[in-house]
Input
Amino acid sequence: MVSAAGIYDHAGNPWAYSASFAAQIAEVASVSGHMAADPTALAGTGVVCAGVKYMYVSGSAEEVYGKKSNDGVVFVKCNTCIIVAYHNDKIQPGACRTTVGKLADFLKEQNI
Output
């Protein structure tokens, strides 16, 4: 379950996104770059998505999660794209991460 989401290439260019979702190219590209190099470096700067700064909670080369109060954002890298999803306080973080992870697994199986 997610509140809003988008699919972007690794450079941050949008492929598709929810009407209410406004993650910027530079924001997605920054997180993508950190995922490729050192996601833990986001602990010092936080994760910015749609102009909102989130506290870095966890990250790896495959997934980065940030939260602000009870809202959160998850970035999951696929072969050729990154799924970025936002959840509000009505959705549990684990449910959002699981949903996005399953979509990412499907896209990876399709070699996307």
User: Anything to note?
Assistant: The domain at 4-109 is CATH 3.30.450.30 (Beta-Lactamase).
